[in-house]
Structures are given as C-alpha cells and as structure tokens.
Amino acid sequence: MMSRARQRHTGQQSHRRRGQALVELALVAPILIVFLLGGSQVGAIAYAQVSLDTAAREGARAGVVAPNSSIQAWDPLGLVPSRTVRAAPTSRA
C-alpha cells in the first residue's frame, strides 16, 4: 500500500504531465495547422495551373482544327473560359 505522502506526490505529477501535454499541444498545433492548410493551397494552385494549361491547349487546338472556314461559326476564345476553373482567390461561383 502507498503512503499518503507518496499518493500526494503521484497526484501532483499527474497534473504536471497533463499541463505539460497541453503546453506541447499549444506549441505544435499551430504549426501542424499551417502545414495542412498550406498543403491544400498548393493542391488548389496546382489544380488551377493544370486547368489553365488544358484550356489553353484546347483553345489552340480549336483554332487549328476549325470545323468551318467561317470565323463566326466557331470561337476558340469562347472555348477557353468554359474549360477553366476560376483561379482568382476572390472569385465567386
């Protein structure tokens, strides 16, 4: 059986350990959150870049492989915006 002094000392260590874990979490959590949000932003930027590359390629292809010789029958510049995502951070869908 444990003596009262030893029980009191063990209880204080338990509170100290919980406090230490809370401080460590408070120091590490913001860094982890920044990394997670930064990773998602990098993914969004890469997606927008690939989308713009694909739209430019399809617009150029539409300009080269015109279905009609009439300029009014097709619009390669109108094709590009329909194939892209909005890349501006303030744009609204």
Can you walk through the features of this model?
This protein is mainly alpha-helical and 93 residues long. The protein has one domain (4-82). The protein is 73% helix and 0% strand. The chain has two helices and no strands. Helix 1 (4-64) packs antiparallel against helix 2. The chain is rod-shaped. The N and C termini lie far apart (69 Å).
Features:
93 residues; mainly alpha; 73% helix
Describe this structure in a few short sentences.
The chain is mainly alpha-helical.
Q: Which H/E pattern describes the elements?
A: HH
Distance between the termini: 69 Å
Which percent range describes the beta-strand content?
under 5%
**Fraction of residues in helices?**
over 70%
Q: For the report, how would you describe the main beta sheet?
A: none
Question: What is the CA-atom radius of gyration, in angstroms?
Answer: 30 Å
Count the domains.
1
The total strand number stands at 0
Tally of individual helices: 2
pLDDT under 50 segments (min length 5)?
none
**Which structural class is indicated by helix and strand composition?**
mainly alpha
Could you tell me the mean pLDDT? Answer: 75
* Overall spatial form: rod-shaped
Detail the topology: elements first, then pairings.
Elements: H1 4-64, H2 76-82
